[in-house]
Each structure stands twice: as C-alpha cells, then as structure tokens.
Amino acid sequence: MHRYRSHTCGALREADIGQEVRLSGWCHRIRDHGGLLFIDLRDHYGMTQCVVDPDSKAFGLAEKLRAEWVVKIDGKVRRRPEGTDNADLPTGMVELFIADIEVLGEAGELPMPVFGDQEYPEEIRLKYRFLDLRREKLHQNIMTRGAIVDSMRARMKTAGFFEFQTPILTASSPEGARDFLVPSRIHPGKFYALPQAPQQYKQLLMMSGFDRYFQIAPCFRDEDPRADRLPGEFYQLDVEMSFVTQDDVFAAMEPVITGVFEDFAKGKPVTKKWPRIPFAESLRKYGTDKPDLRNPLVMQDVSEHFRGSGFKVFARMLEDATNQVWAIPGPGGGSRAFCDRMNSWAQGEGQPGLGYIMWREGGEGAGPLANNIGPERTAAIREQLGLKEGDAAFFVAGDPQKFWKFAGLARTKLGEELNLIDKDRFELAWIVDFPMYEYNEEDKKVDFSHNPFSMPQGGMEALQTQDPLTINAFQYDIACNGYEIASGGIRNHRPDAMVKAFEIAGYGEETVIERFGGMYRAFQYGAPPHGGMAAGVDRIVMLLCGTNNLREISLFPMNQRAEDLLMGAPSEVALKQLRELHIRLNLPQN
Question: Is 95 annotated as a binding residue?
C-alpha cells in the first residue's frame, strides 16, 4: 500500500465497502458522540467520515487530535448506520472504521477557523492566507478560476488563435497608470518596467505576420486602490487579430465569452445575441458606460414637458440649450415614504435632492413637481414613461455631461430598492462608438478619451477635418451585470494617422517616436489592419463565482494598501543590494 494513501478523501463509495484503505488529510472537524469519536478527514478532493471506538488501539491517539492536524488513517470501509447518511457528500453513504492513526503534522492554535465560511477580519485572512485557502468556498473559487482559464484557452485555440508569451521586463511607458519600475544592475541609472498590458507587443506580433494571438497575460499597474481591481497585478485574456474589422472581432470573441459564461453559469441564463449599444446611448439610457441590463429601468429625456412650465427651477435651467431634464421611472415606487427616502439618499450623495412625481389611485399625479406643472404635463410624462397608478418618476436636471453619473447611480438605487433586478442571469452587451477625444478641463486641452492606439472612425480624413470632440473611435467594451469585463479597439495602423492623432492631443512626432518607437518603426514596413481586445479574467471569475470581492477569487492578493501581509511585501532591502543597483534612497520626511 502507498505510504500515505490508497484513496483520496473524496473517492470512497459503496463499492469500496469491506476494503482495507489508507487516507491522509486534515482533521476538518472532530466530534465526540458518547464514546465514539468521529473525525471528518479532508483533503483537496473531498471529505470522509472516520470513526473510532474505545476498544480500538487508535482511540487514545484519536483523543489527542485537534482541528487541522494532518494525519494518516488506516481502516476498513463500512456502510454508515441507517439514518446517518449524508446526501451532501459524495462519500456520504460510507465511513472509515479506524484501525490505526499516524500524526503527520501537528497544528498550533488556529488564528482563524477553517471549518465553516463565517466572516473573519480581512487582515487576518490575508496574513494567514494558506489557512483561508483551506476553507471550502474559497478553495472551490480558486479551482473554478483554473477551470475558467482552461475553458478560455481551449475556446481560443478552437477558434484558431495561437498562444504567445510576451516579455515581463519592458520599457517604461509614461501614459496611462504608473509603471512598476525595475532597476537595472548592469545599466546603472536605467530601469525596466513591468507591463501595464502587452498592448505594443501584441500589435508588433501582428506586424510580424502571426495573425491571431492570445495570452492569459499578467498586467502590472502602480495604481491607488480601486474596488474593482486588485492592487498591483491582474490577469487578462489578451487578444489581437490581423485583417479584421470591428465586426470580425465581435464575431470571433462573442462565442468565446458566451461559451465561458454558459460553462460556469450553473444554469443561469446567459445572453445569446449581445446588443450593441453606442456609448452616448448608454449614458443617456442607463447613466453609465457599463450598464447592468438586468435592471429594466431606462431613463428618458423629458425636457419638453418642463420647458416653459410652472416649475421654475427646471424651466429656467432649460433656457440654456445645453441643459436637459431626465426622468427615471420608478414602477411600484409611488408612495410618499419611498419618494422621501430616495430624496434623502440623493442628498447623502451630495445632491440638492431628487425631484419626483407620484401617480395615485385614479391616475392623478402628486407631489411638488406635479402641483407646479399641472395635470396635462404630468399625464404626458406618465404616458411617455409607460407608468401606471402606484408608480413614480424621479428627475435629474442640468448639463447631462455633469449629471449622468449621478443619474446612473439613481437608476441602480431604484432598481435595487424596488427589487427589479433579476440577479439570476448574466446580461452581456457590446458598448461601441466611444469618443476618440475629450476635453481636459484641468489642463484646458484635448486629451485621448481611452486607448490612444484606436483607429478614429473616418480615418485620416476625420482627424484632418472634424472637430476632435465629435470624432468617435473604433473602440468598444464588453459590459456584464454592471461591470466592464473587456475593452478593445481596431488599431490605428497608419503612421501618418498615428502622428496626427497624437498631435491633436498635444504630442509631436518626436514624442511618438520617443514613447512608441518600436511600434512606430514597425508601421513603416507594411502594417496590416488589426484589432483586438482584453478581457479581465479576475472580473469574469468574480461574476461567475457569485462574489463582488476580487480577493475571493485570487490566490494570494494584497490588501487595499497594496501590501502582501503573508510574504511581507513590499519590504526594505539590504544596503548591499541598493549599492549594486547604484540607488540611494530619498525617503519623505515624517
């Protein structure tokens, strides 16, 4: 028999009854039932109930065992007594009657429990992550993550993509987030950078004629903590294709992402045919560029019903052609208590309030706005929004460029409060036609809105003849249940158009050559039209595991201060190491 086990702790079945077997694992739970000791023995594969009575030579040692001790157990498989079967366990019809126990590894007093999934302080969980990872739910999340990555990889290869590994040590790129810098010992005073993304390398692969690339790529960004991204590093399904239009990218990637979701949705419906929603339409209808389409609420422009009305606050605003009034329907929200609660919530978000109209029995509008604009306008708003008795509408007014984010928050809040969101489904959509540029109020200049390497719609002609703020890019995102899970674009592969695009944002040709010299040179020697995208592996896994915390799907994450509490990183280094790198510290004064 094998030194440690003949079977895993998840393998024994009724067919094994009567066999002499050997198991090794962790003591998950130990129970004393009137002289009989029950040990739930756990390993990576499952759990087996083991039992020992006072007549066994192993009983004395069994009494000394504690939670999370690692033991080897020899014994005979037998059927559990009638009425004690456990249908929740694959091994629940049998138990192991213990003949012998060997302690392989004792455990000290636990700083946190492994049995059960109760909440525990995050600092403790991260410091003792090896214990945390033994817990059933987190352990399963990590295994699900691996299976999702396998599914992605298999689907990409079936779709004709080739897997490549791009460099981890690369050149610093000042745009975007801050780089993590790596000092060079053999080139004093110079630094490598960890890649924020393989963007330039994957485009260079297209210049090299490889046609269809993908990679499960690690990306590194020295960003301040964000709720929707792990600090320091994250993983993405990185993709690039040659000789493609935007439609070709969609046709290639939609089945891959849909298939991955269907594989792990546990029966929940997944969007079959993804809608394509222009960026401007997404802001207008949902108040976000990553809409949760499980929420049925759609905002509408109701400015005409307030223009010249008796509600002077809105009427005066609308004298400025820039301003609008948007309505957010609230089906079932037509009570004074609910409307007042929403108004208080808005004030808590830093707004002056949230105007509303309620429709009472008989269809009559109620509330201060209804009283000021009159029954005809109130009825017209109700008809436009398709509302009925017992419903309400909430209003946001001003410059949409300034209020759309708050309007989106209000739509989400209403959907949650009125229980309108179907949480048992995955709604996927393409968000398209992102603006190429935006106006930077702080620096009083035109800046790139998103990826500077995207092809402007209209190409060189648009860059030469259009107002930059009216140019859209072949830039797109994938939204799922209120999260952006992927972003991509058709690339600007023409060197003259690339230079012109950067000139509009205030960068000369010399800057393009300095920052993106490798790619710019490659464009001079026959660049194919190409495009791609990158999907966030961590966010996809998070959604499919049914959690809203990225730390619940990552092996060894940092805390929100970008500290690895388990390994003690970042840490100080020896002066000898600094001298070898020709680095002298200039620390901030306390």
Answer: no
